[in-house]
Amino acid sequence: MVLTLLGRKSESASSKECCYIWELLLSQGLIEEEKLGSFNIPQYTPSLSEVKTEVEKEGSFTINHLKVSEIAWAACGGGGFYSPEYSGKGIDDGYNVAKCMRSVAEPLLVEHFGELVIDQLFQNYRNILSDRMSKEDTKFINVTVSMTRKE
User: Fold this and answer.
1) Residue 146: beta bridge partners?
2) Tens digits of per-residue pLDDT, 55-108?
3) Is residue 146 exposed (0-12), middle (13-18) or buried (19+ Cβ within 10 Å)?
């Protein structure tokens, strides 16, 4: 069995590599501080050592291969999304990443914060992502584990 999941290189569960993309989305000031404080994103990005420890602790599998890889945020695009307002001007990576994140986060955000700010939140997010991606080497971290079931 091979599993690839969002992870992190750092041993710190609050490192930039696992939280930054969410911080950029939620730190715009459009959401009331009280509501923001009670919002929980059901995501955990484990480190390589945490994945290894959990597989070994569970005991049913032997790890054949375990590695960390990096994927640029811009890889969310590549033809999957199209922005009419940018037609003829090239691909807008911020738009693509915002659409990718919106597909995952919108139901959670609407449930907790309501629908009133969603469109503005993601329009701002797109602009923030475009800015950050033009200035930083933004990447997702993946942890991949290949395992064989023990007999």
Assistant:
1) 2, 65
2) 999 999 999 999 999 988 888 765 544 444 543 343 578 888 999 999 999 999
3) middle
Burial of 81 (0-12, 13-18, 19+ CB in 10 A): middle
Phi, psi torsion values for 144, nearest 5 degrees: -120, 130
Coil, helix or strand at residue 140: strand
Between the alpha carbon of residue 50 and those of residues 24, 28, 35, 47, 125, the distances in Å are 26, 32, 31, 5, 31
39-49 pLDDT tens trace: 888 889 999 99
Torsion over CA: 30, 14, 135, 77 (sign): negative
Residue found under tokens 């790890």:
63
Contact 6, 43 (CB under 8 A): yes
